[in-house]
Amino acid sequence: INIILTKDNNSYRSFYNALLHEGYRDLAALLQDGIPAISSGNGRSSMDGMTSYVKTVLCEGGVPQRPVVFVTRPKLVDAIKKKLCCLGSDPGWVTVYGMAGCGKTVLTAEALRDHQLLEDYFPGGVHWISVGKQDKAGLLIKLQNLCSRLEHDSTLSQRPPLNIEEAKDRLRLLMLRKYPR
């Protein structure tokens, strides 16, 4: 509890929610009176501070939702945001790496929950793909899905790629011609 009290209000709320969802309702009830109020005075449309635009873009792109048990890590999230902003002037990749389960997905998804970042640097939206270890059939399905999402507003309804090489070629063309940023 002492560690949680040194963190921000979101940490306390996350701890409370974790107790509720993990079957410790009695302990959560003891902490209920101390839950900090959530302010909504900065033009945001929801409790978690996300605008409806951000929610829509992230949902359409398949970006994972914030977990029930969530602790903010602002320095790491800001570092990812800065790297993502660099893609506006220098196309490339941002790679987030670390041990399994250390929070790479949560941090990266959190960095994308920024209205201005999405509007300025990702005008075509975000397309999230979790690949992990895949056999060739699983990888082909992921690539077919991405092709389908990227071609969603195309007037030509193309058949899905039949193999990984065809999928790579189609994605390369889509990235070069339709989504250069």
UniProtKB/TrEMBL annotation:
SUPFAM superfamilies per UniProt: P-loop containing nucleoside triphosphate hydrolases
One function term, GO molecular function aspect: ADP binding
GO biological process: apoptotic process
NB-ARC domain location: 75-178
InterPro entries the UniProt entry points to: DEATH-like_dom_sf, NB-ARC, P-loop_NTPase
A Pfam family this chain is assigned to: NB-ARC
GO CC terms in record: cytosol
PANTHER family documented for this protein: APOPTOTIC PROTEASE-ACTIVATING FACTOR 1
Name of this chain's protein: APAF factor
Lineage: Eukaryota, Metazoa, Chordata, Craniata, Vertebrata
